[in-house]
TrEMBL record:
Protein keywords: Antiport, Cytoplasm, Membrane, Peroxisome, Repeat, Transmembrane, Transmembrane helix, Transport
Function: Peroxisomal transporter for multiple cofactors like coenzyme A (CoA), flavin adenine dinucleotide (FAD), flavin mononucleotide (FMN) and nucleotide adenosine monophosphate (AMP), and to a lesser extent for nicotinamide adenine dinucleotide (NAD(+)), adenosine diphosphate (ADP) and adenosine 3',5'-diphosphate (PAP). May catalyze the transport of free CoA, FAD and NAD(+) from the cytosol into the peroxisomal matrix by a counter-exchange mechanism.
GO CC annotations, alphabetized: peroxisomal membrane
PANTHER family membership: PEROXISOMAL MEMBRANE PROTEIN PMP34, PEROXISOMAL MEMBRANE PROTEIN PMP34-RELATED
UniProt KW Cell cycle keyword: no
Source organism per UniProt: Gorilla gorilla gorilla
Complex and partners: Interacts (via N- and C-terminus peroxisomal targeting regions) with PEX19; the interaction occurs with the newly synthesized SLC25A17 in the cytosol.
GO BP: any one term: fatty acid transport
Gene: SLC25A17
GO molecular function: ADP transmembrane transporter activity; AMP transmembrane transporter activity; antiporter activity; ATP transmembrane transporter activity; coenzyme A transmembrane transporter activity; FAD transmembrane transporter activity; FMN transmembrane transporter activity; NAD transmembrane transporter activity
Protein name: Peroxisomal membrane protein PMP34
């Protein structure tokens, strides 16, 4: 039984990783626009398509895909860890019974904590690489010169200390509610639909994946903005011009954002984020469900626990 559960969790993890990589690749330019809007406070363009046009005009046609490989690598590792942990914990707790919304939320939260602690260094590095070479409107941003993933790790540890690889960990830990809320709504909506029909259609999976992610993203977006700024870690925001890298600056960043742009400043880039994350999540869940179903069919196995 344990080996079957372990195998099932592995299938879910691989399918989740493949689904996330596929979806992120398709919608990657939207994530580029979102990150610029979050980090570059003086950028005047507020709409996603205008920011993308500016990036292409100033930095070249392939600029929206800058940093694709480190982002995809981090996303693949992150989703593998999350899906494996989520499904392993759920299998152990539910043990063949029907799951509940509360259990999905708790399991999603625990899986998120494990994921954050293991993969934050990868996200710090990919944020730096994704923004390297960008033309910023904000003169308070310190430029970087990394040759690749390994060099970025080396320079960050050498210049900022190994703890800098976990910049943004505190808001990231708070943000584990994002996937937890997402999976809670996704699993709940899926259970409701399965009460009315034997199986879900592709459109069903796409829509409930999109709805679940839209709710989770809107609720947690201000913390995502702070997380991006902390991970980038190249702002000079105090009188001594020291670079930002301390978790105690979270409240300061939120305050500064509201003071400069009003309460809506906390949601700067939300349009791009919703477009990217909702479409990405919807496509990811679609690929994930199809891949897991196909794998279990080919292997002649039934799922060891019910949704």
């Amino acid at each position: 039984m344990a080996s079957v559960l372990s195998y099932e969790s592995l299938v879910h993890a691989v399918a989740g990783a493949v689904g996330s990589v596929t979806a992120m690749t398709v919608f990657f330019p939207l994530d580029t626009a979102r990150l610029r809007l979050q980090v570059d406070e003086k950028r005047k363009s507020k709409t996603t398509h205008m920011v993308l046009l500016e990036i292409i005009k100033e930095e070249g046609l392939l600029a929206p895909y800058r940093g694709w490989f480190p982002v995809i690598s981090s996303l693949c590792c992150s989703n593998f860890v999350y899906f494996y942990t989520f499904n392993s914990l759920k299998a152990l707790w539910v043990k063949g019974q029907r799951s509940t919304t509360g259990k999905d939320l708790v399991v999603g939260f625990v899986a998120g904590v494990v994921n954050v602690l293991l993969t934050t260094p990868l996200w710090v590095v990919n944020t730096r690489l994704k923004l390297q070479g960008a033309k910023f409107r904000n003169e308070d941003i310190v430029p970087t010169n990394y040759k690749g993933i390994i060099d970025a790790f080396h320079q960050i540890i050498r210049d900022e200390g190994i703890s800098a690889l976990w910049n943004g960990t505190f808001p990231s830990l708070l943000l584990v509610f994002n996937p937890a809320i997402q999976f809670m709504f996704y699993e709940g909506l899926k259970r409701q639909l399965l009460k009315k029909r034997m199986k879900l259609f592709s459109l069903d999976v796409f829509i409930i994946g999109a709805v679940a992610k839209a709710i989770a993203t809107t609720v947690t977006y201000p913390l995502q903005t702070v997380q991006s700024i902390l991970r980038f870690g190249r702002h000079r925001l105090n009188p001594e011009n020291r670079t930002l890298g301390s978790l105690r600056n979270i409240l300061y960043l939120l305050h500064q954002r509201v003071r400069r742009f009003g309460i809506m400043g906390l949601y700067k880039g939300l349009e791009a984020k919703l477009l990217q994350t909702v479409l990405t999540a919807a496509l990811m869940f679609l690929v994930y469900e199809k891949l897991t179903a196909a794998t279990f069919t080919v292997m002649g196995l039934k799922r060891a626990h019910k949704h």
